[in-house]
Design goal:
By secondary structure, this protein is mostly beta strands. It has 1 helix and 8 strands. It is globular.
């Protein structure tokens, strides 16, 4: 359950889980969800046909592979993947990110497969 009128400490929330490639919902903003995830390795190529996706790196280093070149993000940097653009997140080391996207968006977009997981609410 997300508690109203209470601040969210990102470091505290990140310390509550170890699973990789599992999005943890920490807040809602209108019809959007603010989520945390820990990444390591390579995800799957996918696109979100109906929505943009914001990645903000909190720690580590994230490469977002695009068909026309890579975007490398360091802590404190963000990138918005436009709707419909195929991308593949890659983290050589464990990386913590914050995601902002509409509620209900699947992590694998149109790709599906064994890495598809619905976001979980983190208390």
């Amino acid at each position: 359950m997300i508690t109203p009128n209470v601040s969210v400490n990102l470091a505290h929330k990140l310390a509550q889980f170890d699973e990789l490639w599992t999005q943890k919902r920490i807040a809602r903003l209108n019809d959007y969800e603010v989520k945390l995830a820990k990444l390591k390795g390579e995800f799957v190529w996918h696109a979100h046909e109906d929505t943009d996706e914001l990645f903000l790196v909190l720690s580590g280093r994230l490469t977002i592979q695009l068909r026309d070149g890579d975007v490398v993000l360091e802590p404190g940097e963000l990138f918005v993947v436009p709707r419909g653009v195929e991308h593949c997140p890659v983290a050589e080391e464990e990386t913590a990110i914050l995601l902002l996207e509409p509620a209900g968006v699947l992590n694998t977009g149109d790709a599906g497969g064994p890495m598809t997981k619905a976001a979980e609410t983190l208390d």
